[in-house]
Amino acid sequence: MDQGEGIKDMNEKLLQFAQQTRQLLSTKPGVEARQDVAALLSQLLHDKAFVSDIFAQPMPDRHILYEDEELHFCILAHQYEGARTSPPHDHAHCWAIYGQVEGETHMRDYKVLSAPNEDQPGIVQLTKSYHLAPGDVHVYEPGDVHSPERHASTKLIRIEEQNMEKVQRFPFIEDAH
Fold it and tell me: What is the pTM of this model?
């Protein structure tokens, strides 16, 4: 197979996944649809050729692979070099599905003690800590606050309900008590 065929196959697999995702999100109730999309993503993460093709070229930390014109969900590839920790955050009124491709992410989930607004950050309290290893998928529902920590380079595929670059979000800080 030449390189052109590999890219064609990858695009076909990505488009098939996007079509299946659109179908699920259009025909099933919210949480059930997202769980089914997560199961599809988990299967896709085990397709070594697909994953290899997605990450074959250098890319920015956040790279949109597909954005649905009708439902507005996005499929993204993330390639993080080196260690990195993100502060607690949510996805506002949107959901997100994280699929770990390579490396490991230490995740923390939080309970909101006080909501953020334009004038002050929200206050959160740690409730759960866990790891995402290659092949693991996790659904974050609207309002779920979490914080990823990566001790080395990682790759993941993420699905967002809509392009988060277009969504206003407010910061959170962890309760010091």
Answer: 0.90
